[in-house]
């Protein structure tokens, strides 16, 4: 990563604070970077903390193409209480004594929610049902169902089981878990379904996103740190980290920048977006193979 003192042009990996929406973070970054051209790749619930990928200036053109398909989380699940939102933000809707639940039973419940599963997102989510956000329907008191969707939970690990007592006196269990999953997976829905499967209900009490695609929490900066020193992953480095690389000579670089659809080597067939670099190592375009030719997705040269 490099530090830049002018208006930056690249990705900013933010360690989002709890209580902020992803849009709040974008608004903050617009002030820090002194530009309106800021966007984010994939939202993070207000309660959650951790990795949020932002694009600044020309890097906003990369955001829609980043293959941020795999995400990693560390969280705490409370067994013994269900909430309206499936997390600690919502009011408690049911309580049950969870003290008799064994670690073995929890491990079996976790195993049942690992792999390729069908998941029903939380009703208080941003998913649109017939064009209307699910959370708006829920707030308006509507009765509705969200269809289950296929998601992949490639890892769901149980690290600790702690006995606790909820504020209303119910004996509960607090589980420390980590999850690696596909984009679109709701961790609070995993918490809800784990509790439901064990017959005592459950909800998410804490969540930290530790990785989004190739971007990890150890490379993220808090808003306070960014206010003091704006740390940017230059657009060329961001592209090289996220996409297959295709190096062109000067002649073919000129042709590509003039809109000529170049023949692409077979190795890029079906690879999705490919980052194109000129002989000096400058990132000039994002292309995609289409019938053997390079179709331009975004030009940076």
Automatic annotation (TrEMBL):
Coiled coil: none annotated. The active site is at 45 (nucleophile). Residues 243-300 form the tRNA pseudouridine synthase II TruB subfamily 2 C-terminal domain. GO terms for biological process: mRNA pseudouridine synthesis; tRNA pseudouridine synthesis. Keywords: Isomerase, tRNA processing. It is an enzyme of class 5 (isomerase). NCBIfam families: TruB. Belongs to the pseudouridine synthase TruB family. Type 1 subfamily. Responsible for synthesis of pseudouridine from uracil-55 in the psi GC loop of transfer RNAs. This is tRNA pseudouridine synthase B. The lineage of its organism: Bacteria, Bacillati, Actinomycetota, Actinomycetes, Kitasatosporales. The gene is truB.
């Amino acid at each position: 990563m490099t530090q830049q003192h002018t208006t930056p042009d690249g990705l900013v990996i933010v360690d989002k604070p709890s209580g902020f929406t992803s849009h709040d973070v974008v608004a903050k970054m617009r002030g820090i970077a002194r530009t309106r051209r800021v966007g984010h790749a994939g939202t993070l619930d207000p309660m959650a903390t951790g990795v949020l990928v932002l694009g600044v200036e020309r890097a906003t053109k990369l955001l829609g193409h980043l293959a941020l398909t795999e995400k990693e989380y560390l969280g705490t699940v409370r067994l013994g209480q269900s909430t309206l939102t499936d997390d600690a933000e919502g009011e408690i809707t049911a309580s049950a004594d969870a003290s008799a639940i064994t670690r073995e039973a929890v491990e079996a419940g976790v195993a049942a929610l690992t792999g390729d599963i069908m998941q029903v997102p939380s009703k208080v989510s941003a998913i649109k049902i017939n064009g209307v956000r699910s959370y708006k329907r829920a707030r308006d008191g509507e009765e509705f169902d969200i269809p289950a969707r296929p998601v992949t939970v490639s890892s769901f690990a149980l690290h600790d089981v702690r006995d606790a007592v909820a504020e209303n006196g119910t004996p509960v269990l607090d589980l420390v878990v980590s999850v690696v999953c596909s984009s679109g997976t709701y961790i609070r829905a995993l918490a809800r379904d784990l509790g439901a499967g064990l017959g005592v209900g459950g909800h998410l009490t804490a969540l930290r996103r530790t990785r989004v695609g190739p971007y990890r929490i150890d490379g993220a900066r808090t808003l306070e740190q960014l206010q003091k020193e704006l740390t940017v992953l230059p657009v060329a480095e961001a592209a090289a980290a996220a996409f297959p690389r295709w190096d062109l000579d000067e002649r073919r670089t000129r042709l590509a920048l003039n809109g000529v659809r170049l023949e692409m080597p077979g190795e890029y067939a079906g690879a999705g977006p490919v980052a194109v670099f000129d002989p000096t190592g400058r990132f000039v375009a994002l292309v995609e193979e289409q019938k053997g030719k390079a179709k331009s997705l975004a030009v940076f040269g």
